[in-house]
Design goal:
By secondary structure, the protein is mainly alpha-helical. Helices cover 66% and strands 0% of the residues. It has one domain: Four Helix Bundle (Hemerythrin (Met), subunit A), CATH 1.20.120. The protein contains five helices and no strands. The longest helix has 27 residues. 27% of the residues are buried.
Length: 135
Amino acid sequence: AAPAAPPRPAFKATLGGDPAVIDLSILAKLLGYHPHKVRKFAFKFLHNAQDGLAQMERALQKGDLAGVRELGHRLKSPARTVGALGMGELMLQLEQLPADGMPERAAAAILAQLWVLLEQITEQIMTNTTFADDN
């Protein structure tokens, strides 16, 4: 039998998409519900997250687990700040990779999940930060 999928984090439902992917109300509250600031910071997050995941790929290819852990630590807070709580949890798992066992395999599996999640986050941000008053 196939192994059971890991349980999804139980985040409360909010407006504007799947909170297990991203809860933009967290960022909106932080920025005083100013839609253009939310979009600006969300897009900056997407750029930095994509760059960070690419850096992780390179570190993992070089066998640099310390680098993977450090990048997980560095990307964890921004993910949580924008409301990408699931991504924040995966970053925490990377930050806390054990030294024994097969940490490279675990890191590669988490990184694969992160790329898929980043695609979903991008879709949510694109859908939920486009405003009718834009010209």
